[in-house]
Amino acid sequence: MSLMKTLREVAIRGVTEARARIFGHVLNPTGQRSGHKILRKKLIGDKVADWYPHDFKKDDPVVMARLEKARLSKLQMLKRRGKAPPKKGPRKTCYET
């Protein structure tokens, strides 16, 4: 390689590095994949969390007690009609003897 070609490549590399430093770009001379494109995006977790309203029912014990009482009364009504869910426990399969 000639001396002029080497000097030209060094000068171009120096200008490229300076431009990246000044403008805040990421220098990637090898062209390898990096996660910089994803990491520079704004995080959206707070926006998503703000979209859903706060459920004040779960903070109030009076409301929770009333809901639990309604659930239990509905379950009792279903039991009287014979429509309640079955008891959970050990099941026997047709393969056991």
TrEMBL record:
InterPro entries: Ribosomal_mS33. It is found in: Mitochondrion. It holds the Pfam family MRP-S33. Keywords: Mitochondrion, Ribonucleoprotein, Ribosomal protein. The keyword Ribonucleoprotein applies. It comes from the Eukaryota. Belongs to the mitochondrion-specific ribosomal protein mS33 family. This is Small ribosomal subunit protein mS33.
